Amino acid sequence: MSTEPRACVRARARQRGLTLIELVLFIMIVGVALAAIVGVMNFTTRHSADPVRRKQALMLAEALLEEVELAKFTFCDVYDPRAGSDDAAAAVTGPGDCAAATQEQWGPEANNARPFDNVNDYVGKAGEPAINAFSADTKLATASTRLVDANGNALPLDGFTASVTIRPDTLREAGGGNAIGNADDKTAQTDVLRITVTIGYDGQTLSLDGYRTRYAPASL
Fold it and tell me: Is residue 42's pLDDT more than 80?
């Protein structure tokens, strides 16, 4: 006959270890939780912006926007006899002062390549992005393309695309005062152009906007 107190027997019974079923359930719960955490971390890593790639995209966008903004913005092509004339009587004040064949329109003239001599030359039509003009096949791999600089040299950066969109726009003085330009996209003869450069990379895009005004119609 045992003389051990009943309270000690009950306490020892409560101190039993985990059963096999409880251990398996614990492992399953912890495994599911860890899988969910790892999945969230992988998703975040894949879809987070790489700071280096974003800086490269910004550099490309700024360079391309500057290239377009530095182009001339004249009524006549630079080869027009009256383009850039200092003679007041021969000064160009509108497209009617140009020879018919040298009025600036959307799209580059024949045998004209980057860097184009006029802002209008960078797109074939107002509001439609120009894409292929800024990339070339590098032959490094099948269907491998890279962006090229203004001189046609491939840039040492992979996985980037570039497009430029130009459309007529209107600028108005602060407080709703006088406005210059017009938003008619049927003609290239406007005084204000809005330039949008978009760089694509890793499933993301970065865009920069700039404006070009016709501040000196005859200036070259």
Answer: no
